[in-house]
Amino acid sequence: MVKKTKKDTKDGIGAEAEADDQLRTAESQTGEAHDDPDLKLQEKIKEAADNYDRYLRAVAELDNYKKRAVKEKADAIKYGNEALIRDLLPLVDNIDRALKHAETSCDFEAFKKGLAMLHAQLICSLEKHGVQAIDCASKAFDPYYHEALMQVPSTDHEANQIVDELEKGYLLNGRLLRPSKVSVCKRPDCGNQ
Fold first, then answer.
1. How many independent structural domains does the chain possess?
2. Which of 124, 135, 175, 180 is the most exposed place for a label (fewest CB within 10 A)?
């Protein structure tokens, strides 16, 4: 292994300096102007500062965007049902009127008719917002849309056919909101009779 001495290091530095001088001489002979290194350094420092400033602004803008998106999402969740509730308020008003009228009137038929109108108004409001009742009448039992609460022996229905709907089921824009609660036909065994 060869040990470097101070003289070797100086010669190495001297060789680099000599190469730089030759490069400058070649540039001046070809007509290319060599910029002052301090001037180039100042330009690069300024460019770096500008890039850093743009970076800080972009980071701040991204942070503000994230905060705004979180706030908008929270507001959408908080006030998302506003249109539905606004459509249900007239129904509440009509129920209040019906109750007030029921206090002074003994006409059961008018009360029954008013209750049917309120039901129709509620169903209309729900349908306007994508709620749809599941039709179960004489349909085959489907575990995706129906919940069987009991089996009923019947000769009037096919096996696993819905006999009676105990509670209506609903879809919200095609997605199951609540399954229908039903009773399902169980065909009586012919061998037991």
1. 1
2. 175
pLDDT in tens, 59-116: 999 999 999 999 999 999 888 888 888 888 988 898 888 888 878 878 888 888 888 9
Q: Is residue 148 part of a domain?
A: yes
Cβ neighbors of 125 (< 8 A, separation 6 or more) are 84, 87, 88, 91
DSSP letters, 53-100, are HHHHHHHHHHHHHHHHHHHHHHHHHHHTTHHHHHHHHHHHHHHHHHHH
Domain extent at residue 151 = 132-193
Compare 47 and 5 and report the one with higher pLDDT.
47
Read off the tokens for 168: 């209506």
Is 111 contained in some domain?
no
| In contact, 129 and 84? CB cutoff 8 Å | yes
